[in-house]
Amino acid sequence: MTYSFTDFVQTLEDMGVSDVLLPFVLIFTIVFGVLQKTDIFGQNKKNFNAIIALVVALSVVIPLSLIHI
Predict the structure, then answer these.
(1) Which among 9, 29, 32, 63 has most CB atoms closer than 10 A?
(2) Which tens digits make up the pLDDT trace of 12-23?
């Protein structure tokens, strides 16, 4: 049995990738980029900025995923 690209996309949709993963990546990227550009915490604080972006993105995505359950 062969699978097409549309079957693959439908499988990802059924798993909830578009509901959880895509908003997470978008929010994480925007917050991380803003923190890197503004240098709020000083230069070379990439790890600290990543942790803050991770927490903000998860705090938005987790309640959204609980609504869809």
Answers:
(1) 32
(2) 888 878 888 889
- Write the pLDDT tens digit of every residue in 42-66: 888 889 999 999 999 999 988 876 7
**Number of residues assigned to the chain:** 69
C-alpha 62/C-alpha 2 separation (Å) is: 35
Question: Can you say whether residue 3 is alpha, beta or left, with left for phi > 0 and alpha for psi between -120 and 50 degrees?
Answer: beta
Q: How far is CA 11 from CA 2, 14, 51, 57, in A?
A: 14, 5, 30, 24
pTM of the model: 0.76
> In Å, how far are 10, 20, 22, 23, 67 from 6, measured between CA atoms?
6, 20, 18, 21, 27
